[in-house]
Amino acid sequence: MLTPHLPNRRRFGVVLLALCALVLSGCVEAGSDVTAADKPKAGADEFLPLLDEGSGEPSQEIQDAAAKEGGLVWYDSSTQEQAAQIMKAFQRKYPFIKEVSHVQLVAGDIATRVVQEDQSGRSTADVVSNAAELMTPLDERGLIAPLEADKLAMPSDLVAGDLAVTSTTAYGIQYNTKLVAAQDVPKTWDDLLDPKWKGKIGLWSLPAPLVNLVPTWGGDETQSFVKSLMAQQPQVFQSVFEMTSAISSGQLPLGIGVDRLTSIAKAQGAPTDFAAADPLSVSVLYSAVVQGGANPNAARLFISWLDSAEGAKAQEDATGRANPQVPGTKVRDEYQGKNLSGWPPGNTDQVKEWADAFTELIQAAG
Description:
Blueprint: H1 16-25, H2 44-47, H3 60-69, E1 71-76, H4 80-93, E2 99-104, H5 107-119, E3 127-131, H6 132-140, E4 159-160, E5 163-176, E6 201-204, H7 208-211, H8 214-217, H9 219-230, E7 235-237, H10 240-248, E8 254-258, H11 259-267, E9 272-275, E10 280-289, H12 296-306, H13 309-319, H14 330-335, E11 340-341, H15 348-365
Parallel strand pairs: 1-2, 1-3, 6-7, 6-8, 10-11
Antiparallel strand pairs: 3-10, 4-5, 5-8, 5-9, 5-10
Helix pairs in contact: 3-12, 4-13, 5-6, 6-15, 9-15, 10-11
């Protein structure tokens, strides 16, 4: 077992903040018990500290250096249309960044692409955005450059080493409204284990939605749930976009989906909707400057801007996701009052450990 034994999730309301504090301090050890007696319900302000303001104006030194570079290449999973909208807003703020480009990659391919480019001696990306566990291959190879957050006027709660929190993604139950009656929509994660859903569940090949449950349920219980879920013979998709489309088009009745992608499909007229299972699984997404890129200061400027009120709004308007720590975002209000489960900044190693374990289970089932 990868992490210490925690109480059964059906008997205890283990809460994200208190558990993560124990994990970070190294106080939770194998065989220890964590009771619910002194655990408040986790909310957005406990999962990620809510700030009075986002990033301020970066130093003149950074801006001058970025102006000399004049370009920016961004790798992430946003569509080209979404990225173009974000980049246009960024250039309105900083018109001296004249050449911008975006490469859309599925989350699992971003680090692979950067590593391959580095090995070939032609680094292209300046900034990448992804989940913590998917940044690890870059960090291990020294491909994440210093963020220099002190020159970016970024609040410390937005920074984890050389990574910056720039958005979040929430996972729950996406379902096809023509195939799943309202009374049959799963309301809990355990509802997915009903025999009637065997062979009918869509699942992303990357285990982020499941890894996020560990801080609340504990390692033993989450791993047990994942094994039971694999026994349901889910249909595994390499791209979460493909899975969203499969459910929206009626190829599958339901799956573990992304709130923002489901909302986009619904707005386009697809018969699909999203149900937030309790706890709501939330991934923190980070951005980092790529070592060896041609425009490191433009990358720093862009990351800082994403965490400003203006940049967070631009990102949310384009993609539906944003950093809930930044005031003025819709997602900040949407998370309020919900029981959130996820890993706060600074837990990259543990996130990757669990991601590797659950990936093996998914691959074995597939």
